[in-house]
Design a protein that fits this description.
about 600 residues; alpha+beta; eight-stranded mixed beta sheet; five-stranded mixed beta barrel; 15 helices; globular; RNA-binding
Length: about 600
RNA sequence: GGUCCUGUGGUGCAGUUUGGAGUGCACGCCGCCCUGUCAAGGCGGAGGCCGCGGGUUCAAAUCCCGUCAGGACCGCCA
């Protein structure tokens, strides 16, 4: 129960929480504290809704009673303390909309703890407030149900994750925030050193190197809810600062890591939804690209990519004489038979074609499927009857469907169709349940740079796939891109939740990778020599992972944007409307740090005609 | 760096396409009335740099250019 005695000499301001009162409390004297959520002043009687962290209860005040005159004066968001008795509401005045709607508090004492100006936007959520206003007055916004719900949900996620990791024998270890620049690919946030003028710390993009050092240090199983900072442009799913469940384990392979992380993430989902999530799927990277055209497939809906190579193997149509021809089937979006809201107009199809071209495709072929496999398309005349029939057969198209086809280099075709698939079929965040998916066997290198050197897809400490190690020595050029890594991603409803890998723990293998990447021995030594050194002193085989907590929480909360699950986020241009950060600093501070601000290159004046 | 969308009393919108008086709706705010409301109700009232700057025009919230802020996305985030 909420009733407490002071004990330590402090004054207890309240005995109960507003939202927890029930008919069983009838007759109880309660002391409540909170904000006025709403007032309904009838003159001789005033109804106040008192809101605290637990919810709302109706408080009834008779302002004609001596000492209760403030009943007329109080306004929304004033902070008050109420003493009174819980009583059943009179017949016909029960409010089934409120969990406390069967009772009310008959006020005997009304104390104004603090007056308040009218809030810049209503705390009640009937109308959506402008986001910059919400951020500027975040402390008001935080009173609203949505933020209360989301941040408490986030706390539930953190609690469940810590519980699951603890149970699996992981120890939470903190790592430094002021570090040397780490080899992640993002731009560092940088902190000037006062004691070493001209030198800089970097804020961690992740605790990557430290967790590997913890493995060398014999911690065996480490995790941390780690703040990470990356100075890259912001998006709906990206903030400068974000939080990861960061984990690393020794004497373990990729499947061990997948098992552990599955356990923790499923525990978080279950803590929020009340039921265990569906079993996590698993696809190879190659399969994900071929079937969904993405390395983070949204498997809440079908519309999979169909390989039409066989169908057009001997085609006369030049546009389809390519590395790959693939298509997607958009149900009911064709003309005629199945005509309805889903049907796409000619101008919509033109827009789709533009979209495909912007994504790099040479073009987009659309086909409307009619009765008996009849095909209506600008290119129908170039296709044989047999090809048309085989096409309908291969895609499983029904009358009224629309087919979208792209031909060209295979991975380009996959990416273009994968994007169109999302444009046309992706459900809102609140629909389709939770589709967790492991994507495994990522390639070790994602591309070749201008000098023909491979660019690591994950990071340079990623262990190559055991079966592909020999390729590392023999392969050159494009063939290097076939080398698979022991790297894996966790995907939820088309969002990349996180990634991990088995790490290289042997110095000789690591040096071979550096050589391939064109990182010289001196360069490697300068950037992360301490890690290479550590590997000389008995590094265990180890593997790890990191899960984006902001993204996981957003999806569990049914939010499209991670700002909704962050107490004090920044806008897309990296500003905090509440504190005004970032701002200039005192010249004396600059001086102390040995820094000077270079004059910014002015943008050229607009040309006068 | 780029593309698209948005900016109108404290709040949320309409008005911009087709230039013609700051016009309108809802909420909030202030005052008065009101003893069973819960989006309380009734009467009255206050509140505007139409983001900012420039241009076109007899006339600009409206058209043009620039700029600032916000959002979505591309680039970027190995």
């Amino acid at each position: 129960m909420g009733s407490r005695a002071p004990g330590d000499g402090t004054v207890v301001m309240r005995t109960r929480m507003a939202g927890e009162l029930r008919p069983s409390d009838e007759g109880t004297r309660v002391e409540l504290c909170g904000w006025i959520a709403s007032r309904r002043d009838h003159g001789g009687i005033v109804f106040l809704d008192l809101r605290d962290a637990s919810g709302v209860v109706q408080v009834v005040v008779d302002p004609s009673v001596a000492g209760l005159e403030a009943g007329h004066r109080v306004r929304n968001e004033w902070v008050v303390r109420v003493v009174g008795d819980v009583r059943a509401r009179p017949d016909g005045t029960v409010n089934p909309e409120l969990t406390t709607g069967e009772i009310e508090v008959a006020t005997e004492e009304l104390q104004v703890l603090n007056e308040a100006e009218p809030p810049p936007f209503p705390v009640d959520e009937r109308v959506e407030a402008d986001e910059v206003l919400r951020l500027r007055y975040r402390y008001v916004d935080l009173r609203r149900d949505r933020m209360q719900r989301n941040l408490r949900l986030r706390a539930t996620v953190n609690r469940a994750i810590r519980g699951a990791m603890d149970e699996q024998g992981f120890s939470e270890v903190e790592t430094p925030l002021l570090i040397a620049s780490t080899p992640e690919g993002a731009r560092d946030f940088v902190v000037p050193s006062r004691l070493q003028p001209g030198s800089f710390y970097a804020l961690p993009q992740s605790p990557q190197l430290f967790k590997q050092l913890l493995m060398v240090g014999g911690f065996d199983r480490y995790y941390q809810l780690a703040r990470c900072m990356r100075d890259e442009d912001l998006r709906a799913d990206r903030q400068f600062e974000f939080t990861q469940l960061d984990a690393e384990m020794s004497f373990a392979d990729g499947d061990d890591v997948i098992g552990v992380i599955t356990e923790a993430v499923a525990a978080a989902a279950e803590a929020v939804t009340g039921e265990a999530p569906a079993p996590f799927g698993r696809l190879t990277w190659h399969e994900a690209m071929e079937r969904y055209g993405s390395d983070k497939p949204d498997t809440r809906f079908g519309m999979e990519l169909v390989d039409l190579g066989e169908v057009f193997a001997a085609t006369e149509f030049r546009a389809f004489q390519q590395d790959a021809v693939k298509g997607i089937r958009v149900e009911g979006a064709g003309s005629g038979v199945g005509a309805g809201d889903a049907v796409m107009s000619r101008s919509q199809l033109d827009a789709l074609t533009d979209r495909a071209k912007k994504l790099g495709a040479a073009g987009l072929v659309w086909m409307r499927v009619g009765e008996h496999g009849a095909i209506d398309s600008p290119v129908a005349k170039f296709l044989s009857e047999a090809e048309q029939l085989a096409l309908v057969d291969a895609t499983g198209a029904e009358p009224g469907d629309l087919l979208l086809l792209v031909a060209g280099e295979r991975m380009l075709v996959n990416r273009v169709l994968g994007t169109l698939r999302l444009d046309l079929g992706r459900p809102p965040v609140t629909e389709g349940g939770l589709q967790f998916l492991w994507v495994v066997d990522f390639p070790l290198f994602e591309a070749l740079d201008d000098h023909g050197r491979p660019i690591p897809a994950h990071h340079p400490f990623t262990m190559p796939h055991a079966d592909d190690v020999s390729l590392l020595d023999s392969a050159t050029g494009e063939d290097l891109l076939k080398v698979r890594a022991q790297a894996y991603d966790l995907v939820l409803n088309g969002w990349e939740l996180g990634s991990g890998s088995v790490r290289i723990h042997r110095r000789d293998v690591q040096e071979r990778i550096f050589t391939l990447l064109g990182i010289s021995t001196e360069d490697a030594q300068a950037r992360f020599g301490f890690l290479l050194d550590a590997f000389r002193y008995g590094a265990p085989p180890h593997a790890g992972f990191a899960v984006g907590i902001d993204r996981l929480t957003a999806i569990l909360a049914g939010e499209e944007n991670i700002r909704e699950v962050i107490a004090f986020p920044k806008t897309q241009s990296g500003l905090d409307p509440l504190t005004g950060a970032p701002g200039p600093i005192d010249p004396a501070q600059l001086d102390e740090l040995g820094l000077q601000i270079a004059p910014r290159a002015k943008t050229p004046e607009p040309k006068t005609p």
